[in-house]
Design a protein that fits this description.
Blueprint (H helix, E strand, L loop, with lengths): L4 H9 E3 L7 E4 L3 E4 L3 H12 L8 E5 L9 H17 L2 E3 L6 H8 L6 E4 L13 E4 L2 H8 L4 E4 L2 E8 L8 H12 L7 E6 L8 H10 L7 E3 L4 H9 L19 E6 L6 E3 L7 E3 L10 E4 L1 H4 L2 H11 L9 E4 L4 H9 L2 H8 L2 E2 L19 E5 L14 E4 L2 H10 L27 E2 L26 E8 L6 H4 L4 H4 L5 H5 L10 H8 L2 E4 L12 H8 L2 E6 L4 H9 L3 E5 L13 E4 L2 H6 L3 E6 L5 E5 L4 H9 L2 H10 L1
Helix pairs in contact: 2-5, 6-7, 10-12, 10-13, 21-22
The structure holds alpha-methylisocitric acid and iron/sulfur cluster.
The site of iron/sulfur cluster (SF4) has 11 residues, from α9.
Length: 640
């Protein structure tokens, strides 16, 4: 039996473990991307390791989230990143140069290579036949030091595409259709590898949208073959030499298969609250909206910007709508300028932001309370737009453009023929946005850069109150919110900890401080969403020692272990029903249980009832967790 492309990529980079689903493997990382949110911490952690230079052949530090620098503490972070990149050998991508994933794909993607990023949407580069995975800051810091990236070997699922997209149906609708079918948990422990006769009709930008938003399915990653489409994409960018084929074997073996007839898909919209609350557009058409946006790493491509321009050219944005576009990269913006798109967009009343994540992470354009926002973005977890009780709908860029003109959610099929999209023969070549490292200079630490905290070793027993009892699908946006006021503290754990769970329970921090040590109880898929490490480090700083949930999202579970918080799952999910907030739970022999088979008994001091929980660890994870996390483990080694 032949190998899938995903398996071929893994085999080519395997440094430890057996690549069988459920087994831990370690792979060599050739490229690393860092952002100005999680990536700052990666650099601080890398510095704590004391290495003179980054080891992978390509490390790029992007300033893409807090680009507006609304607070000088953001600019402090950026200066730290720039000076650390220069000294330790990373390319620096300036604020305004674009969103890491889009820029990385354009400028650095190489089919067949591995990429680890400090951001959950790193799989975008899977659109170019890379094995691209998102991780927490500390795992990325280890890769910067030349260490392997460890993860559970996923099941490889072939997504077999047939047919072709009908007019006004886009790649965004493809991924929304997968979310509708499979839910935000549907990709847990899996890689989706796209293939089939429908593949050739999908341009690189469309593949990028699908690979990128596979993060919302909680996939480990997504991968597309590197074929003629990839070659023409790289050629337009002046990078034909970087192209090489990356294909599965003809008789490749897969763990599972999903069939998707592209011609059966229709325009879809995700309702507020979760990217998988997907309905056909007909169910929400006519809903008034006050804000429309197109951009983010999912919809910031030339293809998206050009589709929007074709729809609104010669028309006017509705008076009650604020319509904002976020081109994914400076290169796209410059090309839009050269090709005349900007003139048409501005004449129609669109606002063009500098290329950045911007309002996707709640930075700028925060909706007014009680209003509805329609976004060609990827996430709409509660409060993420920057206001509690927000109502954010997700859609494709053409649905967004059509709706910006009418002021209500509008099915673009009512507009008549879909205009065709012309790709420029050559994209602008960016030079000014990148700074190459020369190994010189001092690293500048502004006053907002604080020392990296250390976790504490797992105690023999844990007796602590349940500070929060939460339901299913708690996202990292719930735990450590996005938004300008919070993201400014990504290099300052004590300060960012003050915002923990603020939209879920405004008293959480105060109660955590009184409790000293505490436990959080969650439902299914706890910690979904971003790779945000502060969703582990901030609770750790506040004394959270264990999270008991029905299940955990991959990156968050790894982050909890890396910071010494014990991620326990209920053996019988019904035990969740018997717990109330403020119950004191006692876990006798916690440490001994983790050292043995990972199974322990919890006693509820209020009810007197007991239930079983487990934390099944690989030997590597066990050592890290018991020590109180990876940094604590490393510093213990240094002092012994
Ligand atoms: C996100 O989209 O949630 C973010 C902001 O890009 C995060 C990264 C972070 O919180 O630093 C992600 O996706 O991992
Ligand atoms: Fe930036 Fe949004 Fe993409 Fe996260 S999802 S990297 S905030 S554009």
């Amino acid at each position: 039996m032949g190998r899938s492309l995903a398996r071929t990529l893994i085999d080519a980079h395997l440094v430890s473990g057996k690549p069988q689903p459920g087994e831990e493997i370690g792979i060599k990382i050739e490229q690393v991307l860092l952002t100005d949110t999680n990536g700052n911490m990666s650099f601080l952690q890398f510095e704590a390791m004391g290495l003179p230079r980054v080891v992978p052949e390509r490390v790029v530090a992007y300033i893409d989230h807090n680009v507006y620098q609304v607070d000088s503490r953001n600019t402090d972070d950026h200066r730290y990143m720039q000076t650390a990149a220069r000294k330790y050998g990373a390319v620096f991508s300036k604020p305004g140069n674009g969103i890491c994933h889009q820029v990385h794909m354009e400028s650095f993607s190489v089919p067949g290579q591995t990429l680890l990023g400090s951001d959950s949407h790193t799989p975008l580069c899977g659109a170019a036949g890379m094995l691209a995975v998102g991780a927490g800051s500390l795992d990325v810091a280890v890769a910067m030091g030349g260490g392997p990236y460890f993860f559970m070997m996923p099941a490889v699922v072939r997504v077999w595409l047939t047919g072709s997209l009908r007019p006004w149906v886009t790649a965004k609708d493809v991924i929304l259709e997968l979310l509708r079918r499979l839910s935000v948990k549907g990709g847990m422990g899996k890689i989706f590898e796209y293939g089939g006769p429908g593949l050739a009709s999908l341009l690189a930008a469309q593949r990028m949208t699908i690979a990128n938003m596979g993060a919302e399915l909680t996939l480990t990653t997504s991968v597309f073959p590197s074929d003629d489409v990839t070659k023409s994409f790289l050629t337009r960018l002046g990078r034909a030499d970087d192209w090489r084929p990356a294909l599965p074997d003809d008789d490749a073996n897969y763990d599972d298969q999903i069939e998707l007839d592209l011609s059966s898909i229709e325009p879809l919209v995700a309702l507020p609250g979760s990217p998988d609350r997907v309905v056909p557009i007909g169910e929400v058409a006519g809903t008034p909206i006050e804000q429309v946006m197109v951009g983010s790493c999912t919809n910031g491509s030339w293809h998206d910007m050009s589709a929007v321009t074709s729809v609104i050219r010669g028309h006017q944005v509705h008076p009650s709508v604020s319509f904002v576009l976020f081109p994914g990269s400076h290169r796209i913006l410059e090309t839009m300028s050269r090709e005349g798109l900007l003139t048409d967009l501005l004449a129609a009343g669109a606002t063009i932001s500098e290329p950045s994540c911007g309002s996707c992470a709640g930075i700028g354009h925060v909706p007014a309370a009680g209003t509805k926002s329609l976004r060609a973005f990827n996430r709409n977890f509660p409060g993420r737009s920057g206001v509690k009780g927000d109502e954010v709908y997700l859609c494709s860029s053409v649905v967004a453009a059509a709706s910006a003109l009418t002021g209500v959610i509008t099915d673009p099929r009512t507009l008549g023929d879909e205009p065709s999209i012309k790709l420029p023969a050559q994209f602008a070549v960016p030079v000014a946005g990148f700074v190459k490292p020369d190994g010189q200079g001092d690293v500048v630490r502004g006053p907002n850069i604080k020392a990296v905290p250390l976790g504490v070793a797992v105690a023999d027993t844990l007796e602590a109150p349940v500070l929060l009892k939460l339901g299913d699908k708690i996202s990292t946006d719930d735990i450590s919110p996005a938004g300008a006021a919070v993201l400014v503290f990504r290099s300052n754990i004590p300060a960012i900890a003050e915002h923990t769970f603020k939209y879920v329970d405004a008293e959480f921090v105060a109660r955590a401080k009184v409790a000293g040590r505490s436990i959080i109880v969650g439902g299914e898929h706890y910690g979904q969403g971003s790779s945000r490490e502060t969703a582990a480090t901030a609770p750790m700083h506040l004394g959270v020692r264990a999270v008991i949930a029905k299940s955990f999202a991959r990156i968050h579970r790894a982050n909890l272990i890396n910071w010494g918080i014990v991620p326990l799952t209920f053996d019988d999910p019904a035990a969740w029903d018997g717990i109330e907030r403020d119950d004191v739970l006692a876990i006798e022999r916690l440490r001994a249980g983790l050292e043995a088979d990972g199974r322990v008994t919890v006693t509820n001091r209020r009810s007197g009832g007991t239930f079983r929980v487990s934390c099944i660890l690989t030997p590597r994870e066990r050592e890290i967790l018991l020590a109180g996390g990876l940094l604590a483990q490393t510093s213990q080694r240094e002092t012994t």
